[in-house]
Amino acid sequence: MTASRTICLGFLALIVIGTVLLLLPWSIAAGTWSHPLTALFTATSAVCVTGLSVVDTGAYYSGFGELVILGLIQVGGLGYMTATTFLLILLGRRFGLREKLALQQSLDIGGISGALQLVKSIMALTLIFEITGTFLLLPAFLEDYGELYSIWLALFHSISAFNNAGFSLFSDSLTGYATSVRINIVIPALILLGGFGYQTIMEVYRWGRYHWQCQFLRLRWGRSPSHPKQPRHRVLLSLNFKIAISTSVFLLIVGTVLFLITEYQNPAVIGGLSLSDKVMVSWFHAVMPRTAGFNSVDYGALTTAGIMLTMALMYVGANPGGTGGGIKTTTLRILFSSTKAVLQGHEEVLCYQRQIPMTLIIKAVGVVFGSGVTILGVTLLLAVTNPTIDFIQLLFEAVSAFATVGLSTGITASLSFPGKLLIIGTMYVGRVGVLLLMAALLGDPKPSVVHFPEENLLVG
Q: Can you tell me the distance from the alpha carbon of 286 to that of 435, in angstroms, rounded to the nearest whole number?
């Protein structure tokens, strides 16, 4: 039982448990047993924090069923190993080397030292952001619903947004709040915080605390930074932070501008809105493809250019270590820097005056190639099993499922039985990751002392 197999089987176990719970009559609003495929699809989508659904979540499921979905979203967003580790910490259990290695691989951190403390920080941050989001969303729902139901709506959408799940209790997602300033600020903020990654957020906290301490000492003592009470170690922002934040900001700005341009005159999307509302809706839908899944417009009415833009943003996804999916912003930046180095004739790949190791470049190529092959293969099989549906809609569904986004042009419920099974498998692969899944199937690579001779070949 390797670390990768522990993670993959853990997610499968969560899906099985969720499927059984969602099958029960108590989970269904009508009080009847659910269809097994519907329960499996919903459980997989919740654990993989995707948001795709073959039924109207708010109308089909009872309060207990919605609570089960919310629990699956929370555990799936945190990650199987993180949630399990925190539970064992509460129970006072000790961890062996195998569990720590699995946790390291799950959190994508460099070492196992401090991993347990990181889990505690993750749980604390999650609780703070989700409770804050609930209070901020509550006034928007109080205008239309009763107090108790508004609290439930605020809590459900806060947890769903922070975990980048995209599940909504409204039949049209957030279309009814397309021009709500509060919704267009709070929901994207929760999504971005969840997608940035816990290590990135903690790095901002440590950097800010260090500079606050330095400023306080200057004001209190009037001395230079060499004062004896000055913090011993200077806190610098890591390369991972710089790449993740800068790439995210670039994608958000470009996504907002391009969505505004492609849908500006589309009357079925934002054509009939004022300029300020057009910008606000465009911002909202530049954030959503970062693996969030909410929508305030009908994606089935988007132009072809808008569909292509959304698929590109979904494919990139969020930052590593966050609750989102996709190939990740750092992967995109590594490939961009590698291409830049080739075009400039450099033999080293540099980014922010730091050299990128060859192992990371190879990993980035593997992630992009494996993800692309998976999406194309799933789309081909979807086209075979659903010949009456347009290819662009099937491709959009495959990218959305693999990147665990949850956006759809409205064809999810009309997919054939094999098509729904394909989407279920794609969501699972996208959540655990192509490389991790292959490591679980093939086992950990064995070291080799044999080095073969080099030979050049033609490329490009």
A: 28
Report pTM. 0.87
Whose tokens are 């997919």? That residue is 415
What is the pLDDT, as a whole number, of residue 81? 54
d(CA 373, CA 379): 10
- Residue 194 has which token pair? 């969840």
pLDDT of residue 99: 58
Residues 1-13 have a mean pLDDT of 79
Residues 159-186, mean pLDDT to the nearest whole number? 90
Residues in the chain: 460
pLDDT > 90? residue 224: no
- The whole-number average pLDDT for the span 327-331 is 90
The least confident of 217-221, 287-291, 411-415, 453-457 is 217-221
Q: What is the pLDDT of residue 205?
A: 79
Phi, psi of 322 (to 5 degrees): -95, -170
| pLDDT top residue among 31 and 201 | 31
CB 49, CB 322: distance < 8 Å? no
- Domain range annotation of the chain: 1-113, 239-440
- In 3D space, the residue among 436, 427, 200, 438 whose CA is nearest the CA of residue 325 turns out to be 427
Q: What is the mean pLDDT of residues 48-61?
A: 91
